[in-house]
Amino acid sequence: MPSLTVPTPTGPFTITEELGRVTRSEWGSGGTDQTPLLQRAAAQVTAYFDGQLTSFDLPLNPGGSRLQQQTCNAMLTIRFGETRTYGDLAKSLGVPAQAIGQACGGNPIPLIIPCHRVLAATNLGGFSGRHGIETKVWLLKHEGAASLLI
C-alpha cells in the first residue's frame, strides 16, 4: 500500500492509503509514495501543524468493527480545540465507556481522526501515538485546549 511520511513538530508522521482512501496514519517513518491522495493528505497535515487547518477533508476508511467505525465517526464530529470524554461518546453510542476507550486506542488514523480530543472523566486518558500522552498534550495545546491541562 502506498504511504508517505511528513515531517511534523511531533515527529515523522506516515499516512497510508488503499483504494483511494486513507486507511492508516502513525508516527514514525514509512514511505515516499507521491500519489495525489497522499500529497493532499500531507499538505493538510502540514497545514494543521502550521495552524492553517482545523478540519481534515480526506476520504477515510478506518475499517474495523462496527463499534470501531461508529467511534471513529463520533470522533470526527469533535471540532478543533474541543474535547469530549469517553463517557460522552459512550452515552451517544449506547455502549460502555471502556469500549470507547478501546476503540479510541485502536483508531488506525490518529490525528486525522482526532482521538487526541477524547479524554477520561478525571484525566487526559491515554494516547497510542508517538511519545504517548506527551504528544496528546502537545496536540491539545496546539488546538488551544490547554486550559483543560491546568
UniProtKB/TrEMBL annotation:
One of its GO terms (molecular function) is methylated-DNA-[protein]-cysteine S-methyltransferase activity. Residues 67-145 form the Methylated-DNA-[protein]-cysteine S-methyltransferase DNA binding domain. It comes from the Bacteria. PROSITE patterns: MGMT (PS00374). It catalyses: a 6-O-methyl-2'-deoxyguanosine in DNA + L-cysteinyl-[protein] = S-methyl-L-cysteinyl-[protein] + a 2'-deoxyguanosine in DNA; a 4-O-methyl-thymidine in DNA + L-cysteinyl-[protein] = a thymidine in DNA + S-methyl-L-cysteinyl-[protein]. Keywords: DNA damage, DNA repair, Methyltransferase, Transferase. GO terms for biological process: DNA repair; methylation. Pfam families: DNA_binding_1, Methyltransf_1N. InterPro entries: MethylDNA_cys_MeTrfase_AS (IPR001497), MethylDNA_cys_MeTrfase_DNA-bd (IPR014048), MethylDNA_cys_MeTrfase_DNAb (IPR036217), MethylG_MeTrfase_N (IPR008332), MGMT_N_sf (IPR036631), WH-like_DNA-bd_sf (IPR036388). Residues 7-61 form the Methylguanine DNA methyltransferase ribonuclease-like domain. NCBIfam families: ogt. This is Methylated-DNA-[protein]-cysteine S-methyltransferase.
